[in-house]
Amino acid sequence: xxxxxxxxxxxxxxxxxxxxxxxxxxxxxxxxxxxxxxxxxxxxxxxxxxxxxxxxxxxxxxxxxxxxxxxxxxxxxxxxxxxxxxxxxxxxxxxxxxxxxxxxxxxxxxxxxxxxxxxxxxxxxxxxxxxxxxxxxxxxxxxxxxxxxxxxxxxxxxxxxxxxxxxxxxxxxxxxxxxxxxxxxxxxxxxxxxxxxxxxxxxxxxxxxxxxxxxxxxxxxxxxx
Length: 225
Description:
Blueprint: H1 11-28, E1 32-33, E2 41-46, H2 53-56, H3 65-74, E3 81-86, H4 97-106, E4 111-114, H5 120-126, E5 129-132, H6 137-143, E6 148-150, E7 162-164, H7 168-179, H8 188-200, H9 212-223
Parallel strand pairs: 1-4, 2-3, 2-5, 3-4, 5-6, 6-7
Helix pairs in contact: 1-4
């Protein structure tokens, strides 16, 4: 209105997107589930924030997350596993409620969208496998000694206890291995060593603080490395 620049300069685009989020949020509430059954193999897939750098730059081939989920469900011919998704708290309503309902109608017994109010740690405890592109939920699952499969580059992909799948074909065979109990049990010592190594190579920084003291401490800790 006053011809001033803003952090998000294309204001109209953001207004339109947030209106769309609000509409989707209202519609998708009717589709939420809060139950996780124990009679089938449950795979938890935490949704990324749409347009997130983690997808647009680091994993563009998985940019359309709902399409990816449909592709995974397509090779679930014998209905041996379930896919459970949950919206990121920062993007509730960010996905088409119409598209989600379409997947639910096609796979009513093998697909659920969980309420975003559910705690991620509680979900991970109840599922058999956490499948991520490169979400931090993968590291959360790893910290609970739970199986993790990732599809994109992530800081935890090199852990010996994480299975990295660079294609859907490999993902299919990996899921089959889990279903057939052909995957070795988690080695907790390897996980502890992995996170200890991350801690040992970390630098202290408050990400959202631009104070000189914070920046100087961070710079000094890097120079002293």
